[in-house]
Amino acid sequence: MVENKILQKQALKNNAGLKHRLLSAFILGPLLLLLVKGGIWTFLLLIVGISARSAWEWCHICTNAGYKPNRLLSILLATGLIPCLNWVGPQVIYTYTIVATILFFSFSLLRGTKNYLPNTLIGIGAMLYAGLLGSSPLLLINQVGEIMVNLNGLRPYNSYNLVIALFFCIWFTDAFAYFCGRKWGNKKLAPTISPNKTIVGFFGGIIGSLLPLSFYPHLPELAPWILCGMFIVVGLGGQIGDLVESAIKRDMGNIKDAPPIIPGHGGVLDRFDSYFFAFPIAFVYLKIIATINF
Is residue 10 part of a domain? Predict the structure, then answer.
């Protein structure tokens, strides 16, 4: 009897969480797409906002675990890296990285010698995770034209369509992984990292990642096989990103969610964990394909 009540409470909690997730998705999804389609400046604002909040949550999680990273410096250097990666040359990027690394090591001295190295590396990690990986959607926007020229001599009429297709790929992967795992999943994928993820859910997510192939009429510059391969690696990368973020939270004190900001999703890290791996993988994939030039 007691066990049944516990199961009923858990089911009600899961259903309530699902309702919040769906409501948030219906509200935030169109808003996100509007910001993407709004042009480079609104998109830049979106990326900087995601990166700044992610760097803050990264440091917050580590602070709760007993470390003392410099939160403000991490946010500033993570967001400052974004325009450097997109609009200046490699020498400036190299200079920025050198200065940022020296600043992290220097400012950590103010925290004392206890956990000096972890405090420093947490800040550098925030910059690389939120700034370097987080800037990849902008890199796609700014360099996709060059990629297309290398592929087939065509310049896309709207590179934002590619980014929107990738967002849908991430969402479909997440949705299919969730519902397939909930319906048919028994064997756990990584029980010590994310107990709710299943092997069935993982492969369901890969299947879901292919649904944005319906975007092909809006992406005529990319051959279907290139799109198919891109969506598969993005679906795979997104799920790895999800596991990576879960592993970080477990390592920092078995925290389930980052500080909540989105109902049903927790923090920005919880909502965009797939994004931080999926977009960089898409960028690298297209760069490799363009370099090989099939």
Answer: no
Domain region containing 180: 28-292
Question: Is 210 within the bounds of a domain?
Answer: yes
Model pLDDT for residues 221-238, shown as the tens digit of each residue: 678 888 899 999 999 999
**Tokens 């400046």, residue?**
41
> So what's the pLDDT on residue 89?
80
Q: The pTM is what?
A: 0.85
CB 173 within 8 A of CB 206: yes
For residue 290, pLDDT over 60 is answered with: yes
| Number of domains into which the chain is organized | 1
Evaluate whether residue 156 is within a structural domain. Answer: yes
Question: Is 218's pLDDT higher than 80?
Answer: no
| Structure-model confidence comparison of residues 154 and 144, the more confident one | 144
Query: Exposed e or buried b for every residue in 87-123, given b needs 16+ CB within 10 A?
Result: eeeeeeeeebbeebeebbbebbeeeeeebeebbbbbb
